[in-house]
Amino acid sequence: MAKKFAELQAGMAPESRAEAQQLFQQHLKEMPLHELRKAQQLSQESLAKALNINQAAVSKMERRTDMYISTLRNYIRAMGGELEIIATFPDGQVKIDNFAY
Amino acid sequence: MAKKFAELQAGMAPESRAEAQQLFQQHLKEMPLHELRKAQQLSQESLAKALNINQAAVSKMERRTDMYISTLRNYIRAMGGELEIIATFPDGQVKIDNFAY
User: Fold this and answer.
1) Which tens digits make up the pLDDT trace of B6-27?
2) What CATH homologous superfamily does A30-101 map to?
3) Chain A partners of B59 at a C-beta cutoff of 8 Å?
4) What are the residue ranges spanned by the domains of chain B?
5) Of A23, A40, A72, the CB nearest to B5
6) Which residues contact A44 (CB under 8 A, 6 or more apart)?
7) Is the ipTM of this complex over 0.85?
8) CATH code of the region B32-101
9) How far apart are CA A78 and CA A47, in angstroms?
10) Which residues 15-44 of B are in CB contact (within 8 Å) with A?
11) Where is the signal peptide, in residue numbers (chains A, B) (predicted)?
């Protein structure tokens, strides 16, 4: 299946590929951090432990509407994930790789 | 073509879908902010104007390895793009929607 997908992509005109990218993104589930944590069956306490902070700090973090990219990356890593920063343009998408990994 | 892609996705088992997501991400171009700006044929000066800051501040921003999500979003918007924050897990991807839009 994976191969078929790659072949499909390879055979696409650039415009179709951009369209597919948009479509693909639209299919992604969207959720806030606290829901993502619950989906991973993790408590604020266990995440606090992994991040070496206290539970109140995790709670506060989950209510923020802005934060440093490094803070968000640490939070997502503590859940076992990886953060990706994508810039979407009408003609396609680019992954931004400026930030410390 | 777009419809075919959607149909392909709809018919996928969850594991194949996750695999396709990973593959898809691997196909994304990766670049730092200053290269993305150049690819959009924008100068630091024009971006500075759009952001209501000076050229030196844009130059400094492009050399940072960490910044606020809102700062990055403003930079990408000034280029005509949209920022997306994705968390990638072994079993799939989620778009994080905590941050002010």
Assistant:
1) 455 556 666 666 666 666 666 7
2) lambda repressor-like DNA-binding domains (1.10.260.40)
3) none
4) 32-101
5) A23
6) A37, A55, A58, A59, A62
7) no
8) 1.10.260.40
9) 6
10) 16, 19-21, 23-25, 27-33, 36, 39-40
11) none
